[in-house]
Amino acid sequence: MEKSTSLQFFASESCVKNPLGRIHFDLWGPSPVVSNQGFKYYAVFIDDFTRFSWFYPLKAKSNFFSVFVAFQKLVENQFDVKIKEFQSDGGGEFTSIQMKTHLKNSGIQQGISCPYTPQQNGVAERKHRHIVELGLSMMFHSHVPLHYWVEAFSTATFIINLLPVLQSNTSPHERLFKQKPVYTMLRAFGSACYPCLRPLGSHKFEPRSLQCVFLGYKREYQGYRCLYPPTGRVYISRHAIFDEDVYPFQQKFQSLIPRYHSTLLDSWQQSFMSNKVQEEPEVPIIPPTHVNQSSSEPEPAVEPVTDEVTQNSPSETESSNEIEESIDEQVTVSETHPIAEAQVNTHPMRTRAKDGIHKPNSRYVLLTSKFATEEPKTIVAALKHPGWNNAVNDEMRTIHMLHTWSLVPPTEDMNILDCKWVFKTKLKPDGSLEKLKARLVAKGFDQEEGLDYLETFSPVVRTATIRMVLDIATAKEWYIKQLDVTNAFLHGELQEPVFMRQPPGFIDQERPSHVCRLTKALYGLK
């Protein structure tokens, strides 16, 4: 007794030879995200012979019986065939006294799977997985918000009915209606569409179309469901132009898209694997079987439609008008899951990174130098080396020539900056020495905003500007010359009073306590 295990399952040998001979059905839910119309569950009915599926979104389990009766009347009236058998699990909504009494009075045999044995209701369980996986794939690919899962799952059911099945190599639609399905009306879910809105305009200057989002098909009208996100209104139109390379929710309405958290995805995956449902349906909305391109073609009325279901439903079922209003006119974009905006550099300063100017990273370059020398760490060491001594003197000569500063006595209210020498060896591409550079750099990080600077500016030319100039010069056959301005940074005029200590190694012997009042820009300043 301590070693009891489940027995092996074998393929079912029972089969039906006609449509509606056996109907598999099951409930899925509750959904971790409530739809725009308040749906939390859906019921799926699968014909065993054709594998055709009917999809019904539901709000609560308490109304499942009404939906079931409406579905039965719909299919039996359309195909003039009585349902012979129903197969489901042992859920309370399927085994209630009301349900059993109705099946008995209708002469329908009921098959119930054993407790905790979903394999005996495998057709419906596998259909759940197919619908949910396809629906989620369409939503994630198009970035459609999760609260449109009813539209996505309904469209997924519609597409599945058009796909060939392995057993017969024909589609469920073809087996049930004895005609090949039309694939030309299929469009990418969530893509951009432009319905003709000319008849809806209040005056002649209104736009004749708007960019909408394709959310599936509408059988009653033989048209497409087109959502206009800014207002949440759904337009039903046969006259729609599609741009299936553009997904508006991905490109224009990012702030309306909730994040797909991993915990939420896990709950979706677990929900369609579970055979336990905790709330019940209300009135169904089903995807169309196909959208006719010509009004002269006969349209098979197959899938349960709200209007038809309501006519045959008991009084407690919602009216079709209420459902249509909730779906087509009161679809609003949920704002309960605001997405965090990406961190963007909004600083007005133009930088190389903003203009796409990138320099090679020296860490990834194997550099062989023909010139071996160490860069000095102090000004004393630099002045002892002939090459660095010349570089330092050249820098000071340029600074004095440009009248970069004047010496003034210090006062207590001055914010006096320190400075330092920076030494750099510049090599040619072949590794030989090109130049020894010495730069006097102010420690601008000690500057105080509003006192010795008001704004920052970095003169970086845009790459697009350079390309435009080169294009014009090439087109007009102009000669192009490149100039290199020595110490270009030192040519900038300073408007604010900035004070700096005298540079190390070049302190004025007559005025050693004086400080430099900068009149021109210096490297390191803000």
From TrEMBL:
GO function term, MF aspect, one: metal ion binding
Keywords assigned by UniProt, alphabetized: Hydrolase, Metal-binding, Nucleotidyltransferase, RNA-directed DNA polymerase, Transferase
Sequence segments annotated as region (Disordered): 286-327
Top-level division of the source organism's lineage: Eukaryota
GO terms under biological process: DNA integration
InterPro entries in UniProt: Integrase_cat-core, Retrotran_Ty1/copia-like, RVT_2, SH3_retrovirus
Integrase catalytic domain location: 15-180
A Pfam family: SH3_retrovirus
PANTHER family recorded: INTEGRASE CATALYTIC DOMAIN-CONTAINING PROTEIN (PTHR42648:SF26), TRANSPOSASE, PUTATIVE-RELATED (PTHR42648)
Protein name: Reverse transcriptase RNA-dependent DNA polymerase
